[in-house]
Amino acid sequence: MKKRFLFLSSILFATTTFAQQAAKITDPVEWINPLMGTQSKYDLSNGNTYPAIALPWGMNFWTPQTGKMGDGWQYTYDAYKINGFKQTHQPSPWMNDYGQFAIMPATGKIKVTQNGRQSWFSHKTEIAKPYYYSVYLADHDVTTEITPTERSAQFRFTYPKSDSSFIVIDAFDKGSYIKVDRSAGKIVGYSTKYARGPLKNFKNYFVIYVDKPIALAQVYSDSTLNEGSELNAKHVSAVIGFKTAKGKKVNLRVASSFISIEQAEISLQREVGKDNFDATCAKAKATWNKTLNRLAVEGGTVDQTRTFYSCLYRMLFFPNKMYELDAKNQPIHWSAQDGAIHPGYKFAGTGFWDTFRALYPFLNLVYPAINKEMQAGLVNDYKEGGWLPEWSSPGYSDVMVGNNSASVVSDAYLKGGRGYDINTLYEALTHGANNDGPNATGRDGVQYYNELGYVPYDVKINENAARTLEYAYDDFTIYKLGKALGRPAAETDLYKQRSMNYKNLFDPQTGLMRGKNKDGKFQSPFNPFKWGDAFTEGNSWHYTWSVFHDINGLIGLMGGKQKFIAKLDSVWSLPPVFDDSYYGEVIHEIREMQIAGMGQYAHGNQPIQHMPYLYNYAGQPWKTQTHVRDVMNKLYKATPDGYCGDEDNGQTSAWYVFSAMGFYPVCPSSGQYVLGTPLFKKLTLTLENGKKVIINAPTNSDANRYVSALTVNGKPYDYNWLSHAALLQGGVLNFSMSATPNKARGIKAEDVPYSLSTEK
């Protein structure tokens, strides 16, 4: 009996293991969980995401709202009441929202306040897909369904039998307007609420059509009923009401515009037209699958496949379109920079401090056409505001450090982006590199940086060491772009020289980067575990590796490859101790490092995310393979707590997707990707030019994470990097995977990735 039990157990285990494998994916949108990362709060982020019901890079997102008006945590998985379905443009809870309004169906006694109209709900009755959302509102016995277009949406409400069925339209506070036209079945209005400003002439106009005759129309100032059906006040809401039979479906067609009500009408007619709800839903699903199908994975587990496509979904929102298409189908936009209406492209909702690292490089490889529009949008940012943004939400936002627009612009052009005004963008880069602008544009401390070669610790410029390191990398990207544009050598050599400024902060005594005073002496006392202060949302152990463009030079400063490897190893082996005195509290980024069980490695924040790939530069690529796979396995899952920190506008997701492909852009403007370990047995990348990159790893498994051999187009390949230019030609990468490292592969001097100090 015991033997029979063991035999049956082995069969069951084998069957279960086999069932967990995902075959070729033909309907990738159905593998996505939009709730990934939504179980978050102020002091612990598991993503700080919300379920975005939208199209890729769409102007408008929709989400159920569980938080209160003005709360950045607009949807959290642990909440149990919904108070509205909100049009949102929020990139993160820390940036909060702009251009929002909410729609809420209800029954019974009319209550327009958020607390009054809210309803209990359960995740058991919630369906969340990128192209469709549905939930049962228990207190009202109403089911809500939503499906999106880029600038419009359709709602479908299924009501019970009721003499008092209604819909609340909430235009929020800070100044709003609503008019109900009962005869036309139409509601128009605008919201002026935003979190980051000031914004000149800002309005989010909306138009709503309902397919059931409006029996009741009311407008409210806060919760006070006003006469008539039109109101302009600080906080306007409206109610439309009707009787319903059991199962009666009421449909709304909704669109918005930053330009005018008339422009919202144009978008609604173009994007929805006469389509019913199901037709719009089918088109939205088809758009998602077409976009996602650029990457087709096979032979991973169910969990890996879900996580991969859930991360890819999150990446395809940022930055989102701020432009609209006029009656002649030409792009037009309201400008957050000058408040005027201009022709051309516009995007917003991204922080370059996060996304220069992997999100934009991913667009350059997989979706270059949309990045061409984004680059044209940056031209307009500069022309209309005099600066490139470093954080746009939707205008210039005074957060984070660095001048990383330089990387975003340079990388796009160096990887083949054309068809926009690159000379104006180069002018914008050099302007930003030599001036201190408003709201985090340009370079804070630029005079010190250009004269001393670093931003001093003792001149009351916060996070000075982080700024220095990022400016040095940004100078490298300007140098590379200038050369590509044929700029004079005296000009490009200046930026090349400045890109070596990272050396000025290296402390030989500790082997780490350290703040330096104006007199040339290092800051003292120095605690490498202190977060903030000289660094940004991290400590010296995290920022020491921020020499993306010259890792060979950093190896030399540390005393050679063995000492460099030992320093890398220390990040994982040190205890997760910290000094939070700069902040006066344990910020969530600190807590996420502490609980991850990976020592000082803080993957939940961006500065160190490239660090596991640096073993490739010192002849031990197998350690990259070990740690990259560990991070993928332990810190990502398509569940509400599935991230290990803020997702941050697609960057943390881009790390996973790139790493699952088997490589990562450590230095975006170098034209290279550094090798790691592919996650799937097969991944097919269909490039925009129609060519395919096929990545095979048939013996891949959790145990077989090590690359024993690699061939590219049938030829042995020992380098620890791949060329962007070569990938664009298509090809086949065959990885032989094993359970033990091949310590003879990728160890020669010529195998290492690009560094500026060894540039030929």
UniProtKB/TrEMBL annotation:
A UniProt-annotated Pfam family: Glyco_hydro_92
Domain Glycosyl hydrolase family 92 N-terminal: residue ranges: 31-257
Signal peptide span: 1-19
Classification via InterPro entries: 6-hairpin_glycosidase_sf, GH-type_carb-bd, GH92_a_mannosidase_put, GH92_N, Glyco_hydro_92, PNGase
Domain Glycosyl hydrolase family: 263-738
Cofactor dependency: Ca(2+)
Alphabetized GO MF terms: hydrolase activity
Protein's name according to its UniProt entry: Glycoside hydrolase family 92 protein
Organism of provenance: Mucilaginibacter pankratovii
